[in-house]
Amino acid sequence: MSSPGFRFRAALAAERPLQIAGAINAYAALLAERAGFRALYLSGAGVANHSLGLPDTGDTTLADVLTDARRIARRVPLPLLVDIDTGWDDPARAVRELAAVGVAAVHLEDQVPAKLCGHLPGKQLVSTAEMSARVRTAVAGKPDRDFVVMARTDAAAVEGLDDAIARAQAYVAAGADMIFAEALHALDDYKKFTAALSGVPVLANLTEFGKTPYFTLTELRTAGIAMALYPLSASRTAAAASLEVYSAIRNDGTQQHVVAKMQTRADLYEMLGYTPT
Predict the structure, then answer these.
(1) Based on CB atoms within 10 Å of each CB, which residue in 13, 94, 189, 247 is the most buried?
(2) Using an 8 Å Cβ cutoff, are 231 and 182 in contact?
(3) What phi and psi, each to the nearest 5 degrees, are found at residue 39?
């Protein structure tokens, strides 16, 4: 049986750019699989916001992420990329423990702990040397050669594009398999990034309400991007719909006016592969 890392690389080879769907739990992962995605993503913000009810400011722990990652990987066979923030105290341990629950890939970033959402102002970075050491430590924890360690750089918003590219090149030299170029503003920025990292897959984060425009797959393909990430699109939609339903029930004293917006019991059971006896 192929390893999760091998399946992630195979998905990347089969689809360019590879669309990676954010899934905050196992049921969301089932929905993404049904929609036809080839790879999944567990966001650090997703764990903080939806599992803990906290902002994404570095308060989540490895144990928190492991709980959600284990449940997703156990239920859905699609390869799972997981956000490990700055690697906590030991990136190698994070890699080993996440790989042990079936994760295919991780990314870690070059912010200082406690980090901020990559699309917020005020980010602070560690030195290139310190981040390179994080990458080497994470790579040392890989269970096999196919497991993916991706290095994320937030430097474009802090130091400028040229320095971000230089950092990414250093992270590749330190052993990173792929690069996550965070919060870029223009397709030309991505083109410069991919040209400077020839042969190294680069990920574009298309999170909503952030610094990066909603580029199409065709636009990203022309810029040489290998992966397009949609980290919280479905969960943001579900949250807005849930608040609407809660408000309707509270205000109307009944759910009658919003039942048509709900997934039916039959659809739920079909999604779960469950047939009541």
Answers:
(1) 94
(2) no
(3) -150, 155
Among 145, 271, 204, 211, CA closest to 20: 204
Distance CA 186, CA 178 (A): 20
What pLDDT digit, counting tens, does each position of 219-257 carry? 999 999 999 999 999 999 999 999 999 999 999 999 999
Given a contact cutoff of 8 angstroms between Cβ atoms, the answer to whether 45 and 69 are in contact is no
The token pair at 4 is: 């999760």
pLDDT at 120: 59
DSSP H or E segment with residue 5:
helix 4-14
Q: pTM of the predicted model, to two decimals?
A: 0.95
Is the separation of the CB atoms in 176 and 202 below 8 Å?
A: no
Catalytic residue numbers read: 41, 56, 83, 85, 107, 109, 117, 152, 182, 205
In whole angstroms, give the CA distance from residue 16 to residue 7. 15
Query: What confidence tier does 122 reach under pLDDT thresholds 50, 70, 90?
Result: low
Q: Are strands 18-22 and 148-153 parallel, antiparallel or unpaired?
A: unpaired
Strand partners, 81: 41, 105
Q: Which two tokens stand for residue 71?
A: 């449940």
Whole-angstrom Cα distance, residue 144 to residue 142? 6
- Give strand pairing partners of 181: 153, 204
Q: Which of 3, 65, 5, 15 is nearest to 228 (CA)?
A: 15
pLDDT at 119 over 60: no
Q: Answer yes or no: are the C-beta atoms of 169 and 193 closer than 8 Å.
A: no
Q: Collect all residues with Cβ–Cβ distance below 8 Å to 143 and sequence separation of at least 6.
A: 3, 95, 96, 99, 100
